[in-house]
Structures
1.
Amino acid sequence: MSFMNRFSAFLKPHKTVPITPWRANSRWDLSLSRVAILFFGLAIFGLGDALVVQSNLGNAPWTVFAQGLSLKTGLSLGWATFVTGCFVLLIWIPLRERPGFGTLSNIVIISAAIEFGVSVFPLQETLFGGLASALIGIALVGLGSALYITCGLGPGPRDGAMTGLHQRTGVRVGRVRMGIEVTVLIVGALLGGQIGLGTALFALLIGQSVAISFGIVARLTSK
């Protein structure tokens, strides 16, 4: 098999969430290695999101909302992301969803990583630089998602709200997710959050990025 064929096979998307050696038995089943992988995945996710922000081409829907909130309140983007995550977590109460260690870590670490990333990564001023920043960011968000999801320590606040609404309403999960994303995108844009080519790229590519990352994790951990 040629190098290109092997490389293509390595990047083949995975159709399901792989079972990894570090997967927890419950949302509070903690170990040093599992928590380290969780934290690393969440940090990578936040740094990837920051790269999309610094692409200057438009943000992911939830970051559009957080940026709009930041502009209206004077909070930094990281703190606005933290406040947004806490508010979404409150929605879990009537939905009877239960957070896990990964849920709470998601709010704190991703917010901190975004705060750090936007202060370190340069704001791109050219289309080429912006595209490179956005695409690398989307790849990192996908990898970070794969790592923290496979820990099995609980979904992020937004994912939990999505599945909770799906279970309570019976509406298909894809439609629930689309409704949530479109709503926060519109509200965020009205608040002044940036939308553009980067937003479209994120919407189009993030699913494939996560699926490819699941595949990489599955192949690297298979016996």
Note: DSSP finds nine helices and no strands in the chain.
2.
Amino acid sequence: MKKSIMALGALFMLGGVASAQKVAFEEYKLDNGLHVILHNDPSAPTVITSVMYHVGAKDENPERTGFAHFFEHLLFEGTENIKRGEWFKIVTSNGGVNNANTTDDRTYYYEVFPSNNLELGLWMEAERMLHPIINQIGVDTQNEVVKEEKRLRVDNQPYGNFLAEVKKNIFTKHPYRWATIGSMSHLDAATLEEFQAFNKKFYVPNNAVLIVAGDFKKEQAKEWIQKYFGSIKKGAAIVRETFVEEPITQTIKAKFEDANIQIPAIVAAYRTPSMKTRDARVLDMISSILSDGKSSRLYKKIVDDKKMALQIGAFSNNQEDYGSYIIYGLPQAPNTAEDILKEIDAEIVNLQTELISEKDLQKLQNKFENQYVNSNSTIDGIADNLATYYLLYGDVNLINTEIDIYQSITREEIRDVAKKYLNPNQRLVLDYVPSKDKAQN
């Protein structure tokens, strides 16, 4: 399901525009372990209720991958009090929108309603948590939905296996090594009892955070939260295994053939530390220097000036336990993938040996401040950030203070972090090429 939220309608804008100032919030915990965060903003007559569960693809059995993403779909099937197929009808008939999304680390569900339907949103999320109907009809239905999604977004999408191939090659022990959408054969082989056990283990109040953000009366919201969520039983404590990857000390070389492409891609990927670390944030800045926009170093040099590539880019895939920093390029004939890689390496060496200018650092900090303001400019953005900072970072107030970390990063840190992580012997080099069968046709 798409992460973005669609407009509620012409009568009002989704969530309204929130202040770029400090985000005020209140947090507390119910007796069953459910963490609650409230953010009041009366600027528009809308309210979002969202629940983020600390379960993602990394929590799956290696022989049953895809469960977390599957539950993103399955938990819309219905509950004891919401008939099958009625979930979306209830939401839309009451002027709302809803959706969900899954990553390797968490699953997020939300509804956005006009303010006068806050109670409905809370009741629906409590229903999802308290007694969803998980039966064979729902499993079989959603199995077909997920298969179609995989065909559309992965199997038949140009470069659709790009990220999955990177993960498979740079992680050997950690569950990040498999794709979030998982294996269709694993889902086919799973029993109903396995799905029910997964729900019982992870979709419990003590493994979740509830966010209410927007236009609402706080005391009334607290009464409804207690009414609908307070009686839900606490789940058993979840014991998570720690997976430690050995450092990459020599270049990993891999190749993948994609029948959906005609232009090959060269990929250089580096394993990086948890997104909670300062180094991960420095790598975000490095990514911006190298590839954020047409004025970035890689784009300007390789695409604009030398016309060696049709496209060039870099991004940090930030995650709770480890991350990855990925650079990719699509060579323009007669240039080869190796030519592109040499140019990329040359720019990285520049970052490792020369400090960026004070002017460039200021530009960079301004860009990140703008991104920070934008991420907190809507109610749905604030709700997502509050949930993420609590559940994955362990500090809700990072919604206000993380920008200070970025603003404190120095030119020397940018140079030193580039030296620490972005070396040829610490990476995967993936040749992502058209399949031979495709080339012969």
Note: The CA atoms of residues 372 and 403 lie 7 Å apart.
